[in-house]
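Q: A small favour: would you put together sequence and structure tokens for a protein?
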Amino acid sequence: MHPKIDYPWFFESGLIGCRVNTPISQREAFLFVPYTAVLSADRCWRDPDLKDFYSENPQLFKNENRSNGNNI
């Protein structure tokens, strides 16, 4: 975890999340996601189980079901 972020952070509302403890500069990287955790349409189509789901539900993956050009 980044030294400027406290995780886990327990909020009064009962939610658990993270909290910034020092200002983060514009364009400063603070979150890193390993490639193996990235879920893309291409990776789903290549997965044997998810490929079946995509094939059986094409209406869920049409362009009009995407917001801001991103996959659902």
Notes: The radius of gyration is 18 Å. Strands lie at 5-10, 16-20. Helices lie at 41-46, 48-56.
